[in-house]
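Morning!

This is the sequence you dropped in the shared folder:
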Amino acid sequence: MTDALKIVRRASVEGGQWDEQTLPLLRRIYAARGALSPEQAQPKLARLHAPELLGGMPAAVELLAAAIAGGKRILVVGDFDCDGATACAVGVRGLRLLGARDVVHAVPNRMVHGYGLSPSLVAELAVLEPDLLVTVDHGIACHAGVAAAKALGWQVLVTDHHLPGEQLPPADAIVDPNLGGDAFPSKALAGVGVIFYVLMALRRHLREQGAFADQPEPDLLALLDLVAVGTVADLVALDDNNRALVAAGLRRLRAGKGCVGLRALIEASGRDARRLTASDIGFALGPRLNAAGRLEDMALGIELLLTEDAAQAREIAALLEEINSERRAMQQLMTDDAELAVSRALLADDGQCPVAACLFDAEWHPGVVGLVASKMKDRLHRPVIAFAPAEPGAAMLRGSARSIPGFHVRDALAAVDARHPGLIDKFGGHAMAAGMCLPLERLDAFRSAFEQQVLATLDPASLQRQLLSDGELSAAELDFRHAEALRLAGPWGQGFPEPLFDGHFEVLKWRVLKERHLKLELRLPGMAAPLNAIHFGGWTGNDPGRHVHLAYRLVSDDYRGGGAIQLIVEHCAPA
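The structure's back. Tokens below.
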């Protein structure tokens, strides 16, 4: 079902200014990612870009400051993913810290309202009678919703990070680093990062106005746990600016200073807060928060992030755990359906893998199609769009797209829309992920148009699956000291990937766990003791062989403890 995978070693980079405490292995890994000093490798909050560089900031600050001074009602409207939920919580908490006395919040229900600020959502929110509506993690594409809010006499501030279309919504102020001509150096801010920056600028404005002359200045650093979770979960690039934000948030979480809700979520996920990493956010915390928006209502997730009641937080976290289990089961069934459909298509097409895949099943859930698209994108190494009915039996479809490096899927949808006006009802997103809506009757026409666009613009070289390796580890580097240094050296993530190594090993023993996972005992020349390794989902039904070439991550083995290490295998092939 996939092309052969190729392991490519990163180019070796020499030089840089390092202190004596930095291990040579870390120097090599950092340098390969463009960081040639401790300051570049682990940027500090003091090096954050200035909030004033964001376009639209003066108008946004004036709106918020006037609302606070006048005791006006501020309505923060979030989105139904993890970034949107954390952004909503940061907006509500931050505005209250800065003196706002009347702050309420809302979030669209995926099944009822669809994405973003829609006219139907605005109509429902009218009973709240806000003076100022603030969108977080959406709004830049919500022209009709913003217009509906303005028609009711509300002021509207849009804070977003998604790519804008040709026209901007009729808001009173817009803050989005991806607006054309915006001078902010980091275009990778998540939605939660944008609203955090707005709050920083607002605090500075209030300070200059003397608002804190007779009281302690609010500490916005207390919001960085939420900023870290939303940033990592949204898979934005961890450039220097984002790494500084995420690292600071992780330090708060490890110190037990996170908000009550996140502490409960960490506990429910079985993670150790003291050893929390960005990977734990991506694979444990983010999915549990996202599950609420996918299958239920993200209002539940936002309630968790806003509560100060530890007992309530534990109850909500336990409920999210149940919802996430349901989501995993549903995702597996839908992914199995998708794989079967692709296998049938391959048989019908002489085994030729299509350049892109548009998948649809009338029984699929619209909240989970993004996860199915992601899984199939990984397995096919092709751009994939998965569609489901917007609601059971509906003729309107919601699609979620996932792409591969080298292919900008949001731009591809824009090109299809330009060439075939009226084919897509609406769309939006990023280079690697996008969402869209269209009627079922247009699906075949869209599939053809999308595949033609991919054929016309995708570099065939992008279809070669690759794993970028940081090279071999010596026997002296395969120890607990280096594993712990790698764990603490992050945060690792999009654009600053977690270290991956490769090398040849002798297989001493192997066994299969839960009929899916391959457990290995390995030998490397120069090491007295064997190495433990596990390849999750790696059982193919075949003996791995006596000698193997592995691509792997070096981690501390928390299960064994006592300074043990383990290799997490990403790819296994005969040596």
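Headline: DSSP finds 18 helices and 17 strands in the chain.

More detail when I'm at my desk.
O.
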